[in-house]
Amino acid sequence: MSSTPKPPTTPTTPIPHHHPIHQYPEALTTITTPTDVSTMTRLLHEFLDIVKSDKDFMFNNVRTTNSLVDHVFAKVCLLDLAQSRLHDTNLRIELIVHRSNCLEGVKKSLQSDDLENGDNFVRGFLKIDIKFKFDPGWVRVVWGRIMSR
């Protein structure tokens, strides 16, 4: 039995449904049933031009979005810095008020000859100064003398 060679066949694989060419059904019909190579080549070039323009459009959108994100991030950083400064300022104000209360307490204690209570106010005042470094070294010297008693 002799077998005669068969002419080569081109496999026809279906185009997947998620492929972008399904967005252009007229091109799909023409490409799946091409009449000649030049028509198929022309349609593929048209399709590639469409894909390229879509790619350029998407790239510009991504670039614009990236620029907006950078701008928003810079604003968020500025707001975060401002919030930190505001928090530090509020803490300083509270400490200044506490120090002022300590000074008033010392004055009242001296007027009423209540030295023990005055000593407590002085200790509170010096603790604030040392902890938050309001004043230079003289506070540490005075604090050392008070604590050594």
From TrEMBL:
Ranges of Pro residues composition bias in the record: 1-14
InterPro entries in alphabetical order: COG4, COG4_N
Region (Disordered): 1-21
Pfam families attached to this UniProt entry: COG4_N (PF20663)
Domain of life of the native organism: Eukaryota
Positions of the Conserved oligomeric Golgi complex subunit 4 N-terminal domain: 43-130
PANTHER family, sorted: CONSERVED OLIGOMERIC GOLGI COMPLEX SUBUNIT 4
Name of this chain's protein: Conserved oligomeric Golgi complex subunit 4 N-terminal domain-containing protein
Organism the protein comes from: Lithospermum erythrorhizon
